[in-house]
Amino acid sequence: MKKIHLIVGARPNFMKMAPLYKEFKKFSNEFEVKLIHTGQHYDERMSKFFFEDLQLPIPDEYLEVGSGTHGVQTAKIIERYEKILFTDKPDLVIVAGDVNSTVACAIDAVKLHIPVAHLEAGLRSFDRRMPEEINRLLTDSISDYLLTPSIDGNEHLLQEGIDQKKIKFVGNIMIDSLVEYKDKAEKSTILEENNLSKNEYCLITLHRPSNVDNKEGLTIILNAFEKISEQIKLVFPIHPRARKQIQAFGLQEKVEKMENLILMPPVGYYDFMKLQMNARFILTDSGGIQEESTFFGIPCLTLRENTERPITITIGTNQLIKLETKEIINASQKIILGKGKEGKIPPLWDGKTAERIVDIFRKEGIISL
Ligand code: UD1
Ligand code: UDP
Hey, whose CA ends up nearest to atom 21 of ligand 1? Predict the structure, then answer.
């Protein structure tokens, strides 16, 4: 029996680990799986809601690290997870994505000679000012299994000199959850509750420090919202970081004045999926939402200078927008006038990624370091 730890910590981890957890559970005579939650995200709406919607059990371990600077948060995770590894000694640790919990737990495991698998490996924005890019580079460089969502991931890893044998193109695990829960999401009543109709609103999410951590950037964005909301409703489930910063910069009144802006706390997985599927377009700086909108075929404007997910642009419905009021307004108007970008679904974004991953470990076993 092989013991496996699945690490979750922040909102985008839950929908990536849920399919894998369930797939491993199908082979409970071969694998013992434990869910470890670092507590990087802890608000009900950033964590507990996802355990409910994604039908995940209470985590086996909860590290309660909470918020903090990068140094503090990462160090707390490293300190607390190491203690668990000392006593529990898994055969494999699986981390996902690019958040602080990802790199911290990978460092712990690899130093104790426990193999690490990185889910969503090889993505690169080539922008080292983003904390996530540092987390990706570090995690990939110490992981033993690099499970890539798209073929550009393989190319980046090979260019960085990583042994080809470690790299496995398995597809996009986020899509597994979309496929699995699409029917449940259809039943969400979030549109009726907010008096919304299909194609008649733009869905917004924002949380990147480059957009929300300075007053100038936030003002540029809110000025664009004022104009766009004259033409279409804006639905904005607000991330706690953005909420805090809007208050800190005294921009609350500007936000509340917009009649056509529907502000709401972060919503659960089914509700958000329903909001995505029915939106005219999406305006975001999220990593995962660039991919989900491509899967749903909904035009997506990404408020960033670069993306680690270029396949959503080359194949999908995504497009990058500069942080300039005029740019945001022009791109939005184009879509409102019916000229939204169309796209296709990239290879292996098919809902079967968890199956492919578990198959690898069943057939090839798990290496020992
Ligand atoms: C983190 C990830 C980011 C990911 C995002 C997904 C890192 C470096 N950043 O960013 O890559 O895209 O999650 O949502 O790992 N807060 C709450 N309640 C919570 C969590 C956070 O109020 O449950 C507030 C706190 O004030 C905190 C701030 O949000 O200081 C930022 O949280 P943090 O986890 O540091 O970064 P995110 O911006 O959430
Ligand atoms: N999401 C959600 N409710 C929200 C906002 C986002 O369920 O109010 C989901 C979204 O569908 C996607 C994931 O959260 O599956 C993306 O997480 P986030 O944008 O926080 O992180 P990123 O992908 O940028 O790291």
Answer: 41
